[in-house]
TrEMBL record:
Belongs to the universal ribosomal protein uL23 family. This is Large ribosomal subunit protein uL23. It holds the Pfam family Ribosomal_L23. Binds to 23S rRNA. One of the proteins that surrounds the polypeptide exit tunnel on the outside of the ribosome. InterPro entries: Nucleotide-bd_a/b_plait_sf, Ribosomal_uL23, Ribosomal_uL23-like, Ribosomal_uL23/eL15/eS24_sf. One of its GO terms (cellular component) is ribosome. Part of the 50S ribosomal subunit. Contacts protein L29.
Length: 82
């Protein structure tokens, strides 16, 4: 499992509403292609873009943009967050 958990903060919520992006904490050795493949297989939504970065805590964070305008909100509601 590459995805550890969704990263939900005030800034992440603004990105969800304005840019249709979600943030996930992923394993350190995960590549952008791994994250894209896993998200598409888990949620059946097309991923348009994946950006990764290391946090100050040493965790790897992936910012994911979806092709469908309502995909990010749907995924969070499936996870029980929204």
């Amino acid at each position: 499992m590459i995805l550890k958990y969704p990263f939900v903060t005030e800034k992440a919520t603004m990105m969800l509403e304005g840019e249709n992006k979600l943030q996930f904490i992923v394993t350190r050795d995960a590549t952008k292609h791994d994250v894209k493949r896993e998200l598409e297989s888990l949620f059946d939504q097309e991923v348009a873009e994946v950006r990764t970065m290391m946090t100050m805590k040493g965790e790897k964070k992936a910012i994911v943009k979806f092709a469908d305008a309502k995909a990010a909100e749907e995924i969070l509601s499936r996870l029980g967050i929204m």
